[in-house]
Amino acid sequence: MTLGAASRPDPDSVPLLDPGSRPQRRLARLLHGDGLEQRALRGSLWTIVGFGSSQGLRLASNLILTRLLFPEIFGVMALIMVVIQGLNNFSDVGVGPAIMQSRRGDDRDFLNTAFTMQAVRGVMLWLACVVLAVPVARFYDTPELAWYLPVAGFISVINGLLTTRLEEANRHLQLGLLTRIELASSALSIVLTVALAAVMRSAWALVIGMVIGAAIKWLLAERLLPGERNRFRWDRSAVAELVGFGKWIFPSTIVGFGIAQGDRAILGKYLTLDELGIYNIAYFLASFPLQLAIAVIWRLMIPVYREYHYDPSPMLTHRLRRIHWGLTGGFLAVLVTMAALGPWIVALLYDPRYESAGMVLPMIACATIPQIVMLSYDQAALAGGDSRRFLAVTAIRAALFLSLYWAGVHFAGLPGALAGQALGAMLAYPAVVWIARRHRVWDPLHDAVFLSAGALVALLVLWV
């Protein structure tokens, strides 16, 4: 069964909340109802508002920092984030998704055990960061990394102590307060980072600001989220469930690192720090639609797919299809806008030192089109507890991406690398279809329409 084959359901049975016109009544149902589509819409809106506002704050910070700091500093930070994200991925056992999909996701023993596992993991990550600092500095021939990494790695300890009330709110699509916490912590950390950069004029400002930002988020989450505070707890049945779910998540996040950070890990060996800094600026702007899509889909689609697994009725199938089409269309529209206006945006916002980012931005944006179209399918596997097939698909995607990206940059420079990225995503499509069909969420018409439109847009942007 595919989503495209679903029969059209009867009209919604939610009571009308407004006596006005039909559009007004429908809007009232969507904004105030408790059904799947209503909660999904509100969750999407909160996530979009939160992510958009957060990225707006980051952009403002970025514009100020690029006038205070030189491009090579952003190249150094890109390498720091490769290491930290790599360590996170190499130790992630999927506690967040496990809480969101588990029937015990509201059980205190289960949540406290998950919190304990995360806290222990955070300390281990920091120690690993300390041990790896010197070898990484030598590999990238950047001695200052040996000093930056142990400090930046302390963010793992702080993140390991984040309350599981964050996942509880995500589980129930209660995203309003989460969005406010994210925005407040982002705003405060950005102000502090800019102040530090104005005084220090070095990468230390960004490193220290990142750690302070994590501490601010921890404090706000502890103070503002309702519910019981976490305690250290070790429940064997909870550990068994978390490990059972995470035994396939763990290797999938390892290979997922290749998709998330593989580009900068590879480019760090081929580009100078200046060039890597320019790429990082272009990537920050070009990846906005993709990062927004990831944020919305991760928060929204696991709960939505979970309900669909429990009740795959024609009505729910139709609503899921509408959600899927709406999200993909919206994200692609933002991506097309960014690709078309990229050079003008960079010229308007940045000083001449970063002008070449305007040429790179459209290429990065177009290379992410296949990822946008296929993004949500693997979340259906996580919602159904099928982390083994999720691993298989992630491994295929990572292997294709890394091999073709490396071959592209080796033989044709950055344009070749980005062409390899797009080709790798398309070659992974059969694996994506396999997992989507397994969980009855594949929509071939959706894919055909949006992949064709994306290919046409890429041709117009890059060659016209």
TrEMBL record:
Keyword Phosphoprotein: no
Topology of this chain in the membrane: Multi-pass membrane protein
Subcellular location field: Cell membrane
Superkingdom: Bacteria
GO CC term (a single one): plasma membrane
Signal sequence, renumbered to the chain: none
Keywords: Cell membrane, Membrane, Transmembrane, Transmembrane helix
Primary localization class, coarse: membrane
Family: Belongs to the polysaccharide synthase family.
Protein name: Oligosaccharide flippase family protein
Species of provenance: Paracoccus solventivorans
